[in-house]
Amino acid sequence: MGAGMAGAALAGVIVALLMADARASTCHAHFSLSDYPSCVQVTPNVTLHWAVGAGSLTWGVDMDGGRTLVEMRRPLASCDPQDHSVLNDTRQTVVFAYGLGDFAYHGPEHRGSKQLVLLPAPTPATNGSAATNGSEVALQVLEMRASNYSVPADPTTYACVNLELPSDKKYHIYKYEPIIDNARLVHHFVAWACSSKPTTPMGVPYDCLGDMECEEFYMEWAPGSGAIVSPPEAAQAFGSGSKVYIALQVHYTNVEGLEGQTDSSGFRVYYSDVLKQYDMGVLTLGTESIAVPAGAESWSTKPNKCPGDCTRKLAPAAGLTLVDSFYHMHAAGKQMVTRHIRNGTELAPLGRRDFFDFAFQGTVNIPPGTRQLLPGDELITTCTYTGVGRTETTFYGPASFDEMCYNYMTYYPENLEIDDCMSLDEVPTQGFGGIATCTKKGELDQLQSEDDFYRFVYAGKLVLLPLANSTIKAAVANPSRMRAGRMAGAALAGVIVALLMVDARASTCNAHFSRSRYPSCVQVTPNVTLHWAVSAGSLTWGVDVDGGRTLVEMRRPLASCDPQDHSVLNDTRQTVVFAYGLGYFAYHGPEHRGSKQLVLLPAPTPATNGSAAANGSEVALQVLEMRISNFSVPAAPTTYTCVNLELPSDKKYHVYKYEPVIDNAHIVHHFVAWACASKPKTALGVPYGCLRDVECTEFYMEWAPGSGTIVSPPEAAQAFGNGSKVYIALQMHYTNLERLQGQTDSSGFRVYYSDILKKYDMGVLTLGTESIAVPAGAESWSTKPNKCPGDCTQQLAPAAGLTLVDSFYHMHAAGKQMITRHIRNGTELAPLGRRDFFDFGFQGTANIPPGTRQLLPGDELITTCTYTGVGRTNVTSYGPASYDEMCYNYLTYYPENPTIKFCMTLDRVPTPGYAGIATCTKQEDLVKLRATADFVSLLQVGKLVLIPSANSTIT
What we know:
Blueprint: E1 39-42, E2 56-62, E3 67-73, E4 91-97, E5 111-117, E6 140-145, E7 149-151, E8 156-164, E9 170-179, E10 186-194, E11 206-207, E12 216-221, E13 228-229, E14 234-239, E15 245-253, E16 261-263, E17 266-272, E18 278-279, E19 281-286, E20 291-292, E21 299-300, E22 304-306, H1 308-314, E23 320-328, E24 333-342, E25 345-353, E26 364-365, E27 372-373, E28 378-385, E29 394-395, E30 406-412, E31 432-437, H2 450-458, E32 462-466, E33 521-524, E34 538-544, E35 549-555, E36 573-579, E37 593-599, E38 622-627, E39 631-633, E40 638-646, E41 652-661, E42 668-676, E43 688-689, E44 698-703, E45 710-711, E46 716-721, E47 727-735, E48 743-745, E49 748-754, E50 760-768, E51 773-774, E52 781-782, E53 786-788, H3 790-796, E54 802-810, E55 815-824, E56 827-828, E57 833-835, E58 846-847, E59 854-855, E60 860-867, E61 876-877, E62 888-894, E63 914-919, H4 923-926, H5 932-940, E64 944-948
Parallel strand pairs: 14-18, 46-50
Antiparallel strand pairs: 1-2, 2-3, 4-5, 6-17, 7-16, 8-11, 8-15, 9-13, 9-14, 9-17, 10-12, 10-15, 19-30, 20-29, 21-28, 22-28, 23-26, 23-27, 23-30, 24-25, 24-28, 31-32, 33-34, 34-35, 36-37, 38-49, 39-48, 40-43, 40-47, 41-45, 41-46, 41-49, 42-44, 42-47, 50-62, 51-61, 52-60, 53-60, 54-58, 54-59, ...
Protein name: DBH-like monooxygenase protein 2
InterPro entries: Cu2_ascorb_mOase-like_C (IPR014784), Cu2_ascorb_mOase_N (IPR000323), Cu2_ascorb_mOase_N_sf (IPR036939), Cu2_monoox_C (IPR024548), DBH-like (IPR000945), PHM/PNGase_F_dom_sf (IPR008977)
Keywords: Disulfide bond, Glycoprotein, Monooxygenase, Oxidoreductase, Signal
């Protein structure tokens, strides 16, 4: 064994020259003669000094097996400043090289390394079975490899090939290992993932020293790495709803200029559709602001911060579990560290490389004491380089003679919205300590102007790092991280934009602004109007000088020829949105905006059989407030909080109307009341996080911007109390984009109710689908039409039918369109409603159009949602967070059927010989589905309904 690469600071190295004729009569006890019968002890004649007083080295030769055996004993920590301490429960790299004869360069074939846990921790007990770690799972094998690639006779080559992964379902990777085909030339390789199809055809090699066609770090191999086994409770995902394509990037080092060399290296992946508890993600930390002076002995980057305001978005309340890091620098790299700060106190670092070597870049476990990342923690990464031997400044770049500073940190559970968190030191931010990314790396390509920066800051995708006495001002200096990109325009139909000049006046007021009502009204002519294709449309402005109001009247046809326009619907609530400001156009902020749900074309009020008293006009109504109580809203962009409340239950009551109580309008986004009959787990009145789990599951009432007072129809109302709903989980969604401190809120519902009951109870039926996988970058993607079949509506509706009242269409930020179609005896009626221009910020209820308000037994309802993947780099799947997606129509109707709350096709359940299987029951029945027998039992009682296809057979 001989010294390795010149200049490499390899601590604890012992070099010994093993002479071919050196022999001894006995073997060291640890090399058992029963295991190695031909083993002889050998005394090395060369040992490199290393300041470990108790260290020892033993050599042995297995003559028959042709192996050289080495044992090393050393203390966990030495007094040598060049030494690596042995760390607890942490992979560390042992490097070796060998040769014959006199000392000489060993060459790439006569070297090796191994990552070992030299001081293992006791294996903790886990809740997962052995099967979740793969010991009892039949794993499939996938090879992601270059195919006989002709390696150029150049010193350095970066070659990529795009590969497609199985996507019929979601999979987890239990382990992966390298396949090294041409060890002489392969330096290292990395798999980069993406959800949308890359440009270069599959399997065709292309040069990728500069631009990668997939940008999400996924897996890597470097000398010293071996098989990577996922932890028992988490794994990297691919397939349906996740990564679908891989760009395999291979770095070749052909220093001898060899001709005719080929390679087929890559990864062998062991995977299964038996999923572990969590998906693992990768967060990129580090900096791209690198300028190493030529000849400098040592130069460090400015400490780069992933701020607490980003980790509050990244990590759930319980925190993230950090698994390992892949520290990445190039040939000038010397040291790298990621520090961990919590509440102003520095914990142990996530890891550090004090003797970085470009040739040994394998993953490193996160030390046990710092493996939990809590919301608000800060991560600070610093890289140190040498400029010795260089005649020019070394900058950031992809080539080996450039430099990088990245820590690719693996963690779970994965946050699909954030994979990049680092300060943009090259972007000046006057009055702030800097600006940091908190988003997907691919989204940063959209940053082209100052407006783009403001938009990202308001969305929380860029985070300002505060200083004392900060004022908001940012400037763009063409940073290197920016590339061509654009934000998709928002399709707001019928928008008219007008700039109202303070000094604009006219002598008369428009006739519609009556002088008797507005005596000081003057007409104002707007000087900016955005075209919209409504030929007979007109807009009139007026100013009520005394009242301090701006008056607006719009006249338009019921339907225009503009494909982006909303038609005015008969007897249907529609949302009118407005925003205003002073001076030049700028973001209006949450205070200077509003919306109102109006029936723009009312129908004549029909005569009803119910008395006036049944509609509440002559009923003495009691008032109940269902509100959160003085909740301290976190200084985070998004918070979901619930509080459980108890309703009066001494008798049965009907809700005649309800209205929102908005306490802190600046940060309240929307709220929903979910009902249940049994007492929820969390104590009444105690707030709890409910981004994912709400302790009551029956949709009851909601408020969203644009909604107002909801009045029940004369003949029906929602019930609560004795024999009905008794508990409410009030779910609040707060949006604190400015991260204001000290904010509190007591919003909720004010409910007007009575024990004078109307004729019918109203119920809510949930339609839609949870089978959502929006491809990244897709302009438009629709769910498979999801059917509530006739066999279910025959159970739901009495012979006389149901009366449908309104719908609450619910999607998230990627939602574009939603429709529920209505089929009767094979004939399609008018849809129950449609949202052709869905907006996440305006999700109020919508009336069912008059012509389709009756649901008869045997009718079919088919719901489809359409989304956009533009601006996203990962597949968007079903989930509760704003960056996940949903597709629900909460349909209010009467008379209530209390046994059926969900009617939707379970697209992910295979039903050979049938078109599918649909739910026709309540949520509490569905959570019991664990095995085939559970499905059979629910089928037998009609709580699951098979959807027939032609030539169906019972399977």
